[in-house]
Amino acid sequence: MTETPHPSGTIERIRAVSSDENLSDDTQKLSIVIIEDNPDDRSLIRRHLIQSVDFRCTIFDADTGARGVHLCREIRPDCAILDMHLPDLDGLGVLQQLKDCESEVSFPVIVLTGIADRGTNGRTAIFHGAQDYLSKDWITAESLSRTVVNSIERFHLMRAKRAEQVLKLADRRKNEFLATLAHELRNPLAPIRNGLELLRLAPADQETISQTRDMMERQLNQMVRLVDDLLDISRISTDKLDLRKATVDLSLIIRQAAESTKPMIDAANQNLAIELPVEPIYLDADFARLAQVFANLLTNASKFTHANGHIWLTVKRDDEIVITSVKDDGIGIPVEHQGQVFDMFSQIDQPVEQSQKGLGIGLSLVRRLVEMHAGVVDVRSDGLGQGSEFTVRLPILEEIVNPTLNPIKSQIANKNCLRILVVDDNRDAAKSLSMVLKLTGHDVETVYDGREAIDAASTLKPDVVLLDIGLPEVNGYEVCRQIRGEEWGRRMKIIAVTGWGQEEDRLKTKDAGFFRHLVKPVEPAALLELLAELKPSPPS
């Protein structure tokens, strides 16, 4: 290695646009790799680089494409000078290998072409990721130095521009997502508000009350599904979503998914045809999560299929895997956009009259959950107006041990009367929950802040405390700790009922002494099922 004694002002411009990771350990020099099999040419290039007045450099060289790729990956140079003709790989092969782990070459590459080339190979190399090319018959110390400097400057300016474009795209997607989220949340709120007015205007019309209640429940479930999808994506993105796997029959999962999406499909007067194999197919899976996968696919099919359209769900076994297909005759997906449908917040533009946009997270969630079950999901569509088909492939469980017959139970009323204290500063939430519990045979008291909760627990000695976390006066964590500190409160079942549902929130409630952690809005059937497992305390 040799170097010139005086760096020029040009190198300062290069360093101003270079990232620290692309600089060699000696910050006074550029690192340059020469990949050239001809020793005379290699020596000439080295000599020209040494003579440069624009920069000082540390030079590494390789005489084969494979050695050059290894060297570049090891040191990540500021620039590489690559001969197009090598004994093992040509220049295009080297460029391709340098892109193996990235979508582009992560440093500028200058390709050296032959005397008779007339720029053809050079332009091809630029198309495949090179930054510039230089004919060997035009190489001088000045031309090589100028090409290196210009290539480095241009490379980093182009990278900065691409990064700016990526940020603009991310910002646009964020704004679109927030606007869509607001739209999707407002949609269910309008019929819920109308339903409340109907209940007020027609308190004695049982048919109206029944229809209104069913409508409000559907809309509320839609809002809960949106919030749950958002939380699930957050948990998966931070590796905080755990699967509760068991041996389950796939047909039960499919039936659960179909049942949950039936109101939406029926409302659009669409026909859903389900084809299941005669013999059961068992999976090692989280029942609820796979039901969520197929419910999302059915929801997606219904959303993008016209009224009176058709949806087909078929399950077929193929040796050690099971293939589940959800197909529709809806509006389809343009071929050029099919690779994007599983991306986070992806929205495929549709005509306004056909648009049924969601949050752009449902299919991303499907892919992540399927992958967590060691499976794959893909999509096929012949284009707009040609329908779509999503296919999920999952491994079959060959050894069957204690299959779960049906993890989703119907609402269970507790046969044991429990003394329950409901604590929530949202008075409507507290009163409505108390009413549900009283109608199912429990003895219920309600308070609205932390200090009242401690006093009421001390006086009533309830079997169960349903305790909100964000309370005035004293928060739920401290309420739980103070109750646990008393002799009468050590065996009390204190259940957190809160809007906070992240893993760290569950750890906090566990540390504070809570028995269970439920996330609002709590499904009444799930709460009643939990309460049914508890026994009332003997009279004191």
Biggest sheet character? 5 strands, parallel
CATH superfamily of the largest domain: Response regulator
* Mean of pLDDT: 81
How do the strands of the widest beta sheet line up side by side? Answer: 2-1-3-4-5
Separation of the first and last Cα atoms: 90 Å
Give the low-pLDDT segments: 1-27, 349-357, 406-414
- Which percent band covers the strand fraction? 15-25%
- In CATH, the architecture of the largest domain is 3-Layer(aba) Sandwich
Gyration radius from CA atoms, angstroms: 33 Å
Percent range for helical residues?
Answer: 40-55%
* Morphology: elongated
CATH topology of the largest domain: Rossmann fold
Class from secondary-structure proportions: alpha/beta
Q: Total strand count, please?
A: 17
Number of domains: 4
| CATH classification class of the largest domain | Alpha Beta
Q: How many DSSP helices?
A: 15
How do the strands and helices of this protein lay out in sequence?
Blueprint: H1 9-17, E1 30-35, H2 39-50, E2 57-62, H3 65-75, E3 79-83, H4 91-98, E4 109-113, H5 120-127, E5 132-135, H6 141-201, H7 206-237, E6 246-249, H8 250-267, E7 271-275, E8 282-285, H9 287-303, E9 310-318, E10 321-328, H10 362-372, E11 376-380, E12 388-395, E13 419-423, H11 427-439, E14 443-447, H12 450-460, E15 464-467, H13 476-484, E16 493-498, H14 503-512, E17 516-519, H15 524-532
Helix pairs in contact: 1-6, 2-6, 3-4, 6-7, 7-10, 8-9, 9-10, 12-13
